[in-house]
Amino acid sequence: MKVPLAYGIAAPIILALFTLGCEYHEPLEPPEPSFGMEKMLVSEGMTFRYKYWKDGIIQITGYTGKTDATVPQTIDGMPVRVGTKAFYKMNLTSLTIPPGVVGIAYAAFKEYHLTEIEIPGGIKSIDDSAFMQNIRS
Q1: Phi-psi category of 94—alpha, beta or left, where left has phi over 0 and alpha has psi -120 to 50?
Q2: Domain ranges of the chain
Q3: How far apart are CA 71 and CA 96, in angstroms?
């Protein structure tokens, strides 16, 4: 059995896991982009920065625009993943993630103001702390 652990876990806990036969794994870092510079998609008052990735997925790397955002389902016909800190401190109040979006990275929406969010059931992964530190007005 593999058990992912967050940084800062005390040594006794790790020792106990090894005693129980579990394996320790460091948290994964986001993959390096395979090619190309960051590009932009502008749609209905929203601007998304993105990159192409090795695994055939577009990773959104940043956002500017309205406080009620809708993540694109695909970009250039490729599935989309919301990258690390892509919407960091964006003051979003409403967010729609359509079916087809394949994942949400660590801290993708860190320090936000969401009061409403829609997440489809088909998302393959939501990393730890993807929606950390919601700031309510």
Answers
A1: beta
A2: 1-29, 31-126
A3: 6
